[in-house]
Amino acid sequence: MAEFSTPTTEQQFAENFAQLKPVMNRTEALYESSRCLFCFDAPCIKACPSGIDIPQFIRQINSGNDTGAARTIYEANYFGNACGKVCPTEVLCEGACVYNLQEVKPIEIGRLQSYATTKVIKSGEKLFGPGADNGKKVAVIGAGPAGISAACELRSLGYGVDVFEAKAQPSGLTVYGVAPYKITNEETLAEMAYLQAQFGYNVHFNSAISSREELAKLEDKYDAIFLGIGLGRTNELGLPGEDKINCTGAVEFISELRQHHHAVAVGRKVIVLGGGNTAMDAASESSRLGAENVILAYRRAKDEMGAYEFEYDLAKGVGVKGLFNVAPVEITGNGYVAGVKFIRTETKDGKVREIAGSEFVEDCDMVIKATGQAKQTEFLSLIPGLKLDSKGRIMANAHTGQTGNPKYFASGDAWNGGAEVVNAAAEAKLTARGIHAYLSK
Amino acid sequence: MPDLSINFAGIKSPNPFWLASAPPTNSGYQIMKAFDAGWGGAVWKTLGVPVVNVSSRYGGVNYRDKRLVGFNNIELISDRPLADNLREIEEVKKRFPNHAVIASLMVQTRQEWHDIVRQSQDAGADGFELNFGCPHGMCERGMGSAVGQEPKVLQMIVEWVMEVATKPVIVKLTPNISDITEPAMAARRGGADAISLINTIQSIVGVDLDQFAPYPIVDGKGSNGGYCGPAVKPIALNMVKNCAQHPDIKLPISGIGGIENWRDAVEHILLGASSVQVCTAAMHFGFGIIREMTSGLEQYMVEKGFNTIYDMVGKALPNVLHWEDLNMKYKVTANIHKDKCIGCQLCYTACEDGAHQAIKLNADTRVPEIIEENCVGCNLCSLVCPVEDCITMDRTDDDTQHLTWKERTEAGTAPTEFNDEKAGGRHHWVPEPSAALGKERHKTLPGKARLYSGETVLPTEA
After folding, report:
1. ipTM entry
2. Alpha-carbon distances of B199 from A182, A254, B224, B257, rounded to whole Å
3. What residues in B contact A418, CB-CB < 8 Å?
4. pLDDT tens by residue, B124-156
């Protein structure tokens, strides 16, 4: 029996994908903010990649200055609302809360953050605006957390900013990749609209930049180019049968899910390959879409999974079963997926070794590969002077984001290899400052 | 089991917990309900010539998410006809003959005082409480605290009452006065049998930031009210102590002010009260709080071996001295118990900015360290610490010496000149003023600035 029945209406979808961190009301925010100790040199600030002054904004909420709280948050992080919901707060700010050391529940920092920012977004009250026009222009490639954050910061410094986005909506993985129970599309897009209304950058949707000619045009027209391109499609596994119908990549599956909700079909028995956070998301989502059985297959042991513990707990909580120390060797079936042939593995001296003769087939009618995203190395090779490291990540100055080609700057997943929204938002702010320093010389 | 009953200046009550004269004692209905719930006595909402009240009467002081740590009201005495109140007093006494029903009174002329005392007596009241305390509304008409602030007038009215009273008379004192013992002495001179204190403190509990008017707001305006609730307990305790310690007052004291649980009640009793009165807590939580109060009091008495309330009345008084009589050789030093510390560093910043710079931070740990030679034993760190028993103030002198300010003054070893060598802080180290500039600036910068200055370390890979 499935944990969830297959949602057929928007309302059923919303119930199956109920928000994990619903927005607080004023009473909740008052009670929760009252618990904050206002630590000196607070560990939560240090644990936040964007360095939000958390005790300050909580104190502002507590004293009834919600607008001031939102300003404190946005000053450090333009994705303040999204981060309150999608950040892995359990391992960041809330994980650092000193209450944990007394077995007291940590402050719900993420929800307080969303509370204050939601309020200001709904009111439309402008907290920031563009700086005085300095006559210079920057092109931003990618309207994800990195690109939009850079655009905001650059506008505040007086630059003209054009953002080029391949897809139809802004915020990148926030609207195309995060699990739907973490944030809704409406919430994500409302924050994007709120930022654009304040900073006034231009976004060109459905405008992929993919050729040398297009790049050359940008190089001509703009004083600097910011690369917030993120990562690409799900990595190919190179397995026989990978092209069968109903064998899909997690990134592609989640993107569909975010855009089409209950219209997305899921198998009755789904096998998710991978042990990272995206695998946990895809597994949870399959279950919430009504799959009867969801198996999470990982080639190493349970405690070697890259996913955060709370993410695995979340998947287990909706009926996902773990299958560990198994490596896929073939996707079986005749046209459609019918199963995955695995071989058992063991880990010795940190290395995974397959156990000969241990092959078996696990039946299923859908396979979701959550085995990492490919780097966009082909596109990046079109930029002269730009260097990639051995993992295909853009190499750039750690403080300024400047790449081997001085006109190009980078932040976000394409630079850090794949991290959280908050990392991209924080990096992009710094990189925008790097661009400013470079163009102010 | 200990005996909780009291005989307060001749008024008998099954326990020392009375409802104070206030909205909870407005009617026989409420008082019967309270007695049913376990209250020992009730001081009826003040009788007099009935008033007309305004709408919007109470205001509150909240601390963070805690409601009503302070409370005020601009409600006046009873607005019900005297006959209704008297009839209900009679009914209550019939149903609860062993509970204390005390009539609170406030009128103006000698004749009115005589009339209302006689009528209350006839209705069966066990005693009287003269309301010389109300600091709002009634005082503008020459009653309430206007009387309590004029010892001569107070004494005269008490004398009028004593002319006809056959039941014990309690005088309720206002705290809106410099020296509470003066009206207390006037009550004694007038012949009163007991005193009760404190009445409410003149107050404005808050100002509406949009309407620019004080709470509670009546049609855009407000007036000062009378302040009560948990926040006034420290003021009440001090005044109860002052009256209890005064060598000439020698009257039973009914303690009022900020009593919400058994601990508050015991504190009042230890400082000399032999009955206690409660209002705000009952208005906030209802009469049901009495169960916790009696059970807590009983448990405390069992643990301490007190058989009656009188075994503990005033038990803390011998230990309340003048400052000049405190032992200056006593010394405590803060001790942070590392195993309990959660690293909030509130003690550090409190001592650093608010006290004596006697706590330091060390690299690689969030647990602060006490600089023993700088610690003056002020308690601040232990007061701000959010963890129970994490910072203790431990005695560090050897308990062999005793020297008071009075003794030092008498011996001529107290500082007397502006730059006296004998000054307490003379050889106590304080940092150079300029050492403050920029100190730990990186730890107090706003988040954005920390990000730009590199204080926020960006992880390169998730």
Report:
1. 0.92
2. 54, 67, 15, 8
3. 461-462
4. 999 999 999 888 888 888 888 999 999 999 999
